[in-house]
């Protein structure tokens, strides 16, 4: 398994990461267009069967059903890498954390503390790198900004001192550090992640990522979620992380 030092997670120009994200984007667009065509087909079928105005009412119901935010996503992921825990914490504390590759690769601009260089690494004594991702739509007529707040908390070095016990599982070891990642768009919650980085018993690191359900979304976002799940492990593998376990659920 490649180490993150071979393909830095904080480099948006890393060819393997860009290739995976490109496939994700094509799959997401195809699924979104398929859903849109199904909705249009249902509208036309309703007009043909019920006449125009009743069909228009059905179309309005479909539009509302697709856009009303009803669902939340929660989940947990365990990653494995050959990199040291310190190196992993630095990567997750940058303006471009590995788990958000689908966002920072396609962003038109990534700004950290007023800078435009997304490859800046976080020093060992830093708390994290806040950032803003800027996306443009409709040929540049509409711009959306995703604000990222990153906070790092060091683990307790005296808690569960068992670093030399190779028979102990990674889950039993205290985290070297935890990284909280909070995203907001337009002042509203976009996503929230809690990342715990532990030293693996046989060397390297184990990373536990918790996706917290802070945002509701509508049915029209399901194709995006499907495409993200399809390419999630590949995007992390391109950055040197193996997906050991992953569980994601959709709730009300």
Overview of the molecule:
- By secondary structure, the chain is α+β, with helices and mostly antiparallel strands.
- It has a single domain (15-158, 174-251), classed as Alpha-D-Glucose-1,6-Bisphosphate, Chain A, domain 4.
- Helix content is 32%, strand content 30%.
- The protein has helices spanning 15-50, 52-67, 85-92, 101-104, 222-237, and strands at 71-81, 109-111, 131-137, 142-154, 177-185, 188-199, 205-212, 216-217, 242-251.
- Strands 1, 2, 3, 4, 5, 6, 7, 8 and 9 form a 9-stranded antiparallel sheet that branches.
- Helix 1 runs antiparallel to helix 2.
- The two termini are 38 Å apart.
- Mean pLDDT is 81; it is low at 1-10, 114-126 and 157-164.
List the helices and strands and how they pair.
Elements: H1 15-50, H2 52-67, E1 71-81, H3 85-92, H4 101-104, E2 109-111, E3 131-137, E4 142-154, E5 177-185, E6 188-199, E7 205-212, E8 216-217, H5 222-237, E9 242-251
Antiparallel strand pairs: 1-7, 1-8, 1-9, 2-3, 3-4, 4-5, 5-6, 6-7
What does this entry show, briefly?
This protein is α+β, with helices and mostly antiparallel strands. Helix content is 32%, strand content 30%.
The portion of residues forming beta strands comes to 25-35%
Helix content: 25-40%
| Strand segment count | 9
Pattern of helices and strands: HHEHHEEEEEEEHE
Keywords: Membrane, Transmembrane, Transmembrane helix
Transmembrane segments: 30-46, 52-70
Region (Disordered): 157-176
């Amino acid at each position: 398994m490649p180490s993150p030092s071979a393909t830095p997670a904080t480099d948006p120009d890393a060819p393997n990461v860009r290739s995976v994200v490109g496939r994700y984007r094509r799959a997401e667009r195809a699924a979104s267009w398929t859903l849109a065509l199904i909705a249009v087909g249902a509208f036309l079928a309703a007009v043909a069967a019920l006449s125009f105005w009743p069909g228009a009412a059905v179309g309005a119901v479909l539009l509302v059903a697709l856009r009303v935010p009803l669902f939340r996503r929660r989940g947990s992921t365990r990653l494995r890498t050959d990199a040291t825990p310190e190196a992993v914490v630095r990567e997750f504390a940058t303006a471009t954390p590995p788990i958000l590759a689908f966002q920072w690769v396609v962003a038109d601009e990534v700004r950290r503390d007023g800078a435009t260089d997304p490859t800046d690494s976080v020093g060992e004594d830093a708390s994290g790198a806040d950032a803003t991702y800027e996306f443009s739509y409709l040929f540049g007529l509409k711009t959306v900004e995703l604000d990222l707040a990153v906070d790092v908390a060091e683990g307790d070095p005296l808690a569960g001192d068992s670093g030399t016990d190779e028979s102990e599982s990674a889950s039993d070891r205290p985290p070297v550090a935890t990284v909280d990642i909070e995203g907001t768009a337009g002042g509203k919650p976009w996503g929230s992640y809690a990342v715990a980085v532990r030293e693996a018993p046989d060397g390297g690191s184990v990373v536990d990522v918790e996706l917290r359900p802070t945002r509701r979304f509508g049915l029209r976002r399901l194709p995006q979620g499907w495409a993200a799940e399809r390419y999630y492990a590949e995007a992390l593998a391109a950055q040197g992380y193996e997906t050991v376990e992953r569980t994601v659920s959709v709730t009300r």
